Amino acid sequence: MYLAKKWRKIFGKTIMFLLLAIILSSCIFAQSEQGIDLLDTENVEVISISTGGDVSTAITGDGDLWSWGRNYFGQIGDGTTRDRYSPVRILGGAVAVSVGGVHAAAIKYDGSLWTWGDNLVGSLGDGSTTNRHSPVRVLDNVIAVSAGTAHTMAIVADNTLWGWGVGFHGQLGVYAIDYQLTPLHIMDDVVAVSSGWMHTMAIKSDGTLWGWGNNWHGQLGDGTTIDIILYT
Known about the structure:
Layout (H helix, E strand, L loop, with lengths): L1 H34 L10 E7 L2 E6 L4 E5 L14 E8 L2 E6 L3 E6 L4 E5 L14 E8 L2 E6 L3 E6 L4 E6 L12 E9 L2 E6 L3 E6 L4 E5 L19
């Protein structure tokens, strides 16, 4: 009889503990649901986002670009190297943004391309290897941009493709380039581009898909694991 009462008591406490845990987890989940709406206001909505490395960015309907996360190399773009745990405004008039490994690039409404963050291998395209903690202007008439781990690709209004940054595995599309510090013409008639870790994919105006760079894991889709270079 004593043991039965003891086990009923233990069982009852266990049930109460489980119920309390369920209630607390529900509250935490509800708070996290509310906490993710970072930039919500009555008059402004988020229209575009990009994440990479340990950084997140967002563009609101009024053209403001916001950034937050790790900032060791200035990849947030707020003029500091201090980590940001909530969004900070970086620049206005933005229409597109792409975050790479530890750098980022944004297009403004006038077609100008701005980059910031790590620049050890020329990922920013400003002709230097100096890290930039605030956006710097590197190219005009840009209609699309994609930042890879340490290289950047951009399409300008005449549909020419340009690239810069690290090129060890041919991710820029040109053979024997270690670092390209300024934008280099890569291909014509391009309508879309996406930069990966050490490779690049592009769509031409005729609908054909092209890929180049590192292919260790078959990421170029050509049936091999051999790196591909566009031009030698």
